[in-house]
Amino acid sequence: MIFEVVTLFPEMFASVTSAGIIGKAQEKGALQVYLTDPRSFSTDKHRSVDDTPYGGGAGMVMRPEPLVAAIEAVEAARGPAHKILLTPTGAPLTQPAVLRLATLPRLMLVCGRYEGMDERVRGFCDEELSIGDYVLTGGELAAMVIVDAVARRLPGVLGNADSAVDESFEAGLLEHPQYTRPALYRGVGVPEALLSGNHGRIRRWRRLQSLLRTRDRRPELFAKLTLSDEDRALLAGEEP
Ligand code: 6GU
What we know:
single chain; Alpha/beta knot; Trp Operon Repressor, Chain A; 2 domains; 5-stranded parallel sheet; binds 6-chloroguanine
C-alpha cells in the first residue's frame, strides 16, 4: 500500500513513519508513505498557501491552487490514487471504512489546515472523512489515524495472533475484557470462567462480556446487532 500525504506539516509524520509497527512495516516493504508539501507548489514570492475569506470574517482559508497543484503533481509522479480529504465535515471513519480503504493500492490523504480550505478543492477528491465529532487544528492527526488503522490491516504488518483481535469490533461488538498474571492483583481476582480450562465456557463468557459491554457502553451499536439464539440465551442467563 502506498500512502500519499499532502500536508503543510510533513515533519508531524515522523513519529508514525519511523516508530513502532508502522515503521517496521515500512522497512519490510508492506507500505510506503510519501509526504508532499503544498507550499512547494505555491508560485507567489511569499509562497503563500492561505488567504482571507471572501465575504469577510476571522481566520484564513487555504488557497486552492497550491493544494490542487500538489495533488496533481503526486499523481503525475507516482500514479492515480484514491483521494481522501480530511475535514471535520467529512463522513465519520468507521472500521468497515478502514477495511475498504485497506483494499486499495494507493491512498492520498489531503490535510486541511487553518480555519478551512477553499470549497473548490473538494471537487478534486473522491471522499471526505472525519475521525470524530471534535475539532482538530488540522487534518494531520486524522491522516495519521487512517495510516495506522489501514496499515494494521495489510498483509504482513501484524503477526497472525494480533490480526484476529479486532474481528469482534468489525462484527459491531466491543472487545471482551482480558487478564494476565497475577491471578490476584491488589485484591482483584480473575473471572473464574477464564481459569476453568473449559474452552466452551471461556468462549461463552467472552461472548457475553462483549455483548454486555456493547449494550451498556454503546447502545447505538448494540441496537444494530443481529443476536443469535445463543446470544439471547447468554444475555437471559447472564452467567455462563
Ligand atoms: Cl479530519 N480534521 C480536523 N481539522 N478536525 C477533525 C477531523 C479532521 N476529524 C475530526 N476532527
